Amino acid sequence: MDDIRILLVDDHTIIRDGLRSLLENEPGLKVVGEAGDGRAAIDASAKLIPDIVIMDVAMPLLNGIEAATKIKQSHPAIKIIILSMYDYENYIRQALAAGAAGYILKDACATELIDAIRAVQRGESVLSPAITRLVIEDYLRWGEIRPSQSDNDLTTREREVLQLIAEGYTNKEISEILVIATKTVQAHRTNLMDKLDLHSKGELIKYAIRKKIIEL
């Protein structure tokens, strides 16, 4: 049987090193690459075509939820496990809506993660026990897993621009990162402010922090 090929995505090198050490000691698991942000994860996924991407949520340039959405759109067969320290219901809903097959908390034991990898590879979905409880509670309230409604009107590109603005990048820098015209970045900025009824860069940053699009 072929090894399960894994791509590790986390903006902390020490976390990636620890995960690599853990997983490479397990028979049948092979780490084929690493990435430190969501954009690098998309590129690495396209280049390596791993079986599974293990990815954090809160990362620079592009968060794990948006990266997962793009990876699944381009490569539906790649399975994604979110490995996060956060059990926020908003993160969980968005991760599942993005097509993640698993959501594991970073305080889980090593065997839980390894078992999750093997289960996801078999086609199963896996959630940490604490996450399962939150999902059930959410289902009882809403009847389904659905994305947050407050920023539902934003396009994928607008959410990308919002994160980069909140991280302090200028319009010119954002245009270079996204490979779009500076005028297009300004148009997205204007649309963001109109849709969210915000009136300054400071308010955009506060919104991104409140919605946990970026971390302090």
Summary?
This protein has 216 residues and is of the alpha/beta class. It is built from ten helices and six strands, in the order βαβαβαβαβαβααααα.
Verbal overview:
The protein contains ten helices and six strands. The chain has helices at 13-24, 38-48, 64-74, 89-97, 110-121, 129-142, 156-166, 171-178, 182-196, 201-210; strands spanning 4-9, 29-35, 52-55, 79-84, 102-105, 126-127. The longest helix has 15 residues, at 182-196. With 216 residues, it is an alpha/beta fold. The protein has a six-stranded parallel sheet with strand order 2-1-3-4-5-6, with helices on both faces. Residues 144-149 have low confidence and may be disordered. Helix 5 links the parallel strand 5 (102-105) and strand 6. It folds into two domains: 4-142, Response regulator (Rossmann fold), CATH 3.40.50.2300; 156-210, Winged helix-like DNA-binding domain superfamily/Winged helix DNA-binding domain (Arc Repressor Mutant, subunit A, Orthogonal Bundle), CATH 1.10.10.10. Helices cover 52% and strands 13% of the residues.
